[in-house]
User: Fold this.
Amino acid sequence: MKKTGFDEMWGGGKTRSIRKPYLSFAKWVDEVSVDEMLIRQASAEQIFRKTGITFAVYSNDEAEERIIPFDIVPRIIAGSEWDKLSEGLIQRANAINMFLSDIYGKKEIMKAGILPEDLIYANPQYRLQMTVIKPPHDVWSHISGIDIVRTGADDFFVLEDNARTPSGVSYMLEDREAMQRLFPSLVEQHKIRPVSQYTDYLIETLRSVAPPNCGNDPMVVILTPGPYNSAFYEHSFLADRTGAELVEGSDLFVKDRKVFMRTTEGPQQVDVIYRRVDDDFIDPLMFNPDSMLGVPGLMDAYAQGNVTIVNAPGTGIADDKAIYSYMPEIIKFYTGKDAIIPNVETYRCREADKLKYVNDNLEKLVVKLVDGSGGYGMLVGPTSTKAQIEDFRKALLKEPHRFIAQPTLALSTCPTLTDSGLCPRHVDLRPFILTGSKGVNIVPGGLTRVALTEGSLVVNSSQGGGTKDTWVVDENNIKVVEE
Amino acid sequence: MLSRTASSLYWIGRHIERADFTARLIDAGLKFDMLPFSESPSGIQSAFEASGATLIYPGDKAKAKRKQIINFMCFDESNQSSVISCFGKARHDARAVRTALTREVFEELNEAWLNFRKVQNAVKNDDFGAFVAWVEDVVRGFEGALHRTMLRNECLWFIRLGAAVERADNTARLLDVKYHVLLPSKEHVGGPVDQAQWTTLLRSVSAETAYRWIYREGLVAWDVAELLILKQEMPRSLAACISEINLILSRLRSSNGRTGAADRKARAIENKIKNNNINTIFQSGLHEFLVQFQVDNNSLGHSIAEQFLF
Assistant:
């Protein structure tokens, strides 16, 4: 094993030894051959394909449906580590909701001079419409994914916030089910904290934020762009597990400022829409007029308080990477406490002195578009060629306000199965946080994404990333089960 | 239930039934051509004609060779009714309405689609039978999954409704194959070639044994027609299909209270069949009867779509 950076299994520094949460797993690794592991991995992928856990890549040939590579080596987190993370995630999710409520409401954070006004008002993700609409129960980002990276035993950082429509939760659940099928006794002896309750939390969350006047059995639907969307499997999976109706824009219509779906029995009123469609596309009358995915008049019904949209429109501003750089101040402002999970140090290129530093050190830094996602519009200095860096420099200097930069982090690695055995690969972690009218819920762990290419730091599935099951284990509680 | 969901389920039922029938029909055509004294038009061409696929065939249908016909009806994605198109569309619809299906049902359709090209590539010139057997397997697996795992509710009924409407149409087309295929000039009605053709037709829909159970005497054309048109106990007879359609419509009626043109048309067709006998049908022309049935059945399909707001 190459001795660089922190490894989830081996730890870091000079004294590398198997970390406590991995002790029992390491024993299992010793007993099982690589060939056996590869066979099990292949059978897992076959099951994913058979059950249709695929994502579409945009091309003409439908056979181009792919599965996201699944790695059978779990990422194991100690219970004590998780408990602290979880507290930090809840704190952050609460702060994000208060922030959104404030910038679309009283605007106290701007009045207090904590962050520049133009960063809010000139932001394309700031939805003016939301200053006159009150989301039911004042919940804005009901479902958020907060990406966490690790660089050392006690060094966890938030890499970015996803407050729009974070995806991947179906993989978190399917990966666990796959591990249970493939390695039942290994799973049993680790006493892993369960995640399957996520879908119960989800439907409870969705029901809890229904408009107050809709009665006590709200109709909840999941709005998908349709089977050609790359995350369609997840949409249908969530509908399946929650019992919510899976609808497309054309299944819904607005009448008398209420939303209805077209059923075989005639129109039926809808109370809560968990939309997996971006703001720009949800209502052609209010946003992008060319959208075929949305529902004309939806925002009007929403303004009237007749339907809840989850997440609320306008939450995307909290994803903005320039806003992100203020998150420690934002958390302090609303909760009165320091952020439990720190941010990664971030240079805002909109500020002249920072821009100069970034410009002088491009080859050492990671530079990102403030509104980019999916690993696009991003420069990883140390692994880029001179030409790539120079191209990027031009874009940066042309519109510096659109970029932020961060030091290149030595993301932790986790052993990952390759044809030549277990090798370290970089990982991150996306926990999913649910906020309803009765508070915040979170399941232990989340989705671990892994960069399958040696040395790569890009974990996005659209760019060759894979997933791992994430185990939160109470390290003193692992039992060795007799076969 | 969402109207879009109902529509997708209904069409899953239709497409799977159509895929099964198309494969069987070609098989029957090929077997006709194995009989001695076959003349033009050949068995495969009459199957082609009866399926309705000649109406959309891009080339000159009279000149179409066996291989081209098989390719067009089974493997050509530009033909909306080819077996591959049917499986593809059923799988697409199944993905879109996955939440209305059990895992088992979805997996049958998904696997059929995933395996299709592999199976197709294995088809050699003279073992088309293996392909037909595979299609039949898929369809049986799908129906078994429906039967064993689906709740007895609207989801299942819409699939069954689609299947029954399609099956009625298919049976009518199958019987009509005999109209298109000419007897060799020296053969006479009721002679050995005529009989062999009827046997092939029966066998293609796995109904030969059923025939022997019901009819003591040897094979006679009007008994075959009676079996496939009027016998309630024969699962793909027109009578059985239309009864099933009525039964399903009445269940949907009691679950969602919607009634309309589809109910009226289905009852009218059922009455027409019940009050008929095989002699009258033959006297007024079997072909004409079958064509009229297809027209009525088609119109029923449109009314179903309207009634359930597809």
